[in-house]
């Protein structure tokens, strides 16, 4: 998700296919403005279920309503009270808010110790919270607060996996070649839902179009003619 958008001369691999659920709302504003209302329902007391509307600045300037899923409740062993664990999409949303605010302390709390993070412009993934946070520190030190991630769409129905489409804006104006997709897998660790895996793919600055299909066809032909080449992939 991160420094790949500032190094757009390198073309990444495509992201995994994801399912998104959104509701189109009215056209409005030019920047993210979360406005959260709360509905309650009975379930061992009353649970607050947030429904967030995010105004998204993009080419069509649409407002996308993104409903949050019900937080997961977990009974603490030996205790009479239930602990409300944040939903996966709320954790991911906080992650982007922390990066935008250059608040690495809040970001670190969302990353599991054994997390693996793949930014596809790098040859190898970042492994472990320490290595990942060092990377985020370099990214923040290389950018200004005027460069902000804007969520275009966010999956909401899975408690352990979240897909995001996003773009970057500079002073509320779209940043060139900055559309991207990210995937996050989350687990509950020490009674907190944390990110255990992330993968980012960003829009390439060089767009080969149908030439890419020609290249793929050529490579597959070679593999069919010389199967031993597959061992070198």
Indicate the CATH topology of the domain at 88-205: Nuclear Transport Factor 2, Chain: A
What share of residues are in beta strands?
35-45%
Look at the structure and give the mean pLDDT: 76
Distance between the termini: 26 Å
Q: What is the rounded Rg?
A: 20 Å
Biggest beta sheet attributes: 7 strands, mixed
* Architecture per CATH nomenclature, i.e. the level-2 architecture of the domain at 88-205: Roll
Q: Counting H and I runs of at least 4 residues, what is the number of helices?
A: 4
* Beta strands, count: 13
Structural class: alpha+beta
The string of secondary-structure elements, in order, is EEEEEEHHEEHEEEEEH
* Rough outline: globular
Instruction: Enumerate the spans where pLDDT stays under 50 for 5 or more consecutive residues.
Output: 1-76
CATH class of the domain at 88-205: Alpha Beta
Outline:
The chain has 233 residues and is of the alpha+beta class.
Task: Explain how this protein is built.
It comes from Fagus sylvatica (Beechnut). It holds the Pfam family SnoaL_2. This is SnoaL-like domain-containing protein. Strand 2 and strand 3 form a beta hairpin. 21% of the residues lie in helices and 38% in strands. With 233 residues, the chain is α+β, with helices and mostly antiparallel strands. The chain has a domain of 118 residues: Nuclear Transport Factor 2, Chain: A. The two termini are 26 Å apart. The strands form three sheets. Strands 7, 8, 9, 10, 11, 12 and 13 form a seven-stranded mixed beta sheet that branches. It has a four-stranded antiparallel beta sheet with strand order 1-4-3-2, with no helix packed on it.
